[in-house]
Amino acid sequence: MLSDGIDVRASRTHNVGLFAVRPIPAGTAVWCPCTACSRWTREQVAALPPGRFERLDTYGHLLADGSLLLPCLGAYLMNHSCEANVLDLGLDFGVAVRDIAPGEEVTCDYATFTEDTGWSMECLCGSPGCRGTVTTAQGADPRLRERWRTRVEAALGGLPRVPQPLDDVLTELSEPYRRARAGAHTLAEVTTGSTVCAPSFALQTPTEGPHRTPTPGLTPTPAP
């Protein structure tokens, strides 16, 4: 699920990306995995031909139970930056960690998707702090995690005070969001174990709650 106020445009880093069309204040929940996102079970992932898995893995991310989730409403087109303006450390949604101006690309840090072990890519973000190569193993780096924590907690302090376009979805799906909305502003206060790689709804069995699983051979169609 992706917040409104964001459009798909050409990106200098990876073909297309997501760009703000109006100001997005720090503390805004920008995206979250939701029950409308397509998912492939662990077994379906294992059955995918290598080329199709590689394509899905480019746009989606693996969850803690081995399934693969493709974020809906174009959220899968969010590009990486080593100076990302959206982070999700310890949360099951991505929050704007600083004000994002109209025309600015909305980015996350791919190293936070820690379940995709062994994954790496050359980074073209061009930020002063660019790491050159991005790997999911970097998500365990204590210095990087401390930097993420500081930025996320500062953003959580503003979450109750700014408009939240995804409020209805997150109020239903996210306990960390509900806690932050109530005024909790540290990860210790909001963390429940539900993260973007382990959203509580996705770790239910089909009989326990909503579960949308696509045809195993399906591949996403990027926006032009």
From TrEMBL:
Coiled-coil stretches: none
Domain SET: 4-111
Pfam family for this entry, one: SET
Record keyword Nucleotide-binding present: no
Annotated keywords: S-adenosyl-L-methionine, Transferase
Domain Post-SET: 119-135
InterPro entries per the UniProt record, alphabetical: Flavunoidine_N-MTase, Post-SET_dom, SET_dom, SET_dom_sf
Domain of life (superkingdom): Bacteria
Region (Disordered): 202-224
SUPFAM superfamilies for this protein: SET domain
Listed name of the protein: SET domain-containing protein
Origin species: Streptomyces katrae
